[in-house]
Design goal:
alpha+beta, Arc Repressor Mutant, subunit A, coiled coil, Myosin_head_motor_dom-like, motor protein
Length: about 130
């Protein structure tokens, strides 16, 4: 993936930009090393700052209850997930996302968290599961 940082001057005009290329690890969503975290959005969504969405998304404030999120480190020194959530929402607003568009993204994020808590068992016939 690419991370694009746009720098604005005091007058609000673009003053510069830089692009960082990085690897988006799909496997990181479902597995983390013991001292690593999953993607920050999962922890931010569980933060108290996002509580207005918790009822509709059927999530709580404890990221440890979500298998995909709880395998690694739940907190990082110096990172306040509630404060980071506010910055994330502000970034969506600056980029012109509507409330519905933001909520749809949050629903997808919560769905991934819930999906990690599902269990599957194979039925006698190989191609079926329940």
């Amino acid at each position: 993936g690419k991370f694009i940082r746009i720098h604005f001057g005091n007058a609000g005009k673009i003053a510069g930009a830089d692009i960082e290329v990085y690897l988006l690890e799909k496997s990181r969503v479902i597995f983390q090393q013991p001292l690593e975290r999953n993607y920050h959005i999962f922890y931010q969504l569980c933060s108290s700052a996002a509580e207005k969405y918790h009822k509709d998304l059927l999530i709580g404030t404890d990221p440890g209850k979500y298998h995909y999120v709880a395998q690694g480190k739940l907190t990082i020194d110096g990172v306040d997930d509630a404060e980071e959530w506010k910055l994330t929402e502000e970034a969506f607003d600056i980029l012109g996302f509507s409330q519905d568009e933001k909520f749809n993204l949050f629903k997808c994020t919560a769905a991934i968290m819930h999906f990690g808590n599902t269990t599957w068992k194979q039925r006698p016939r190989e191609e079926q599961a329940e």
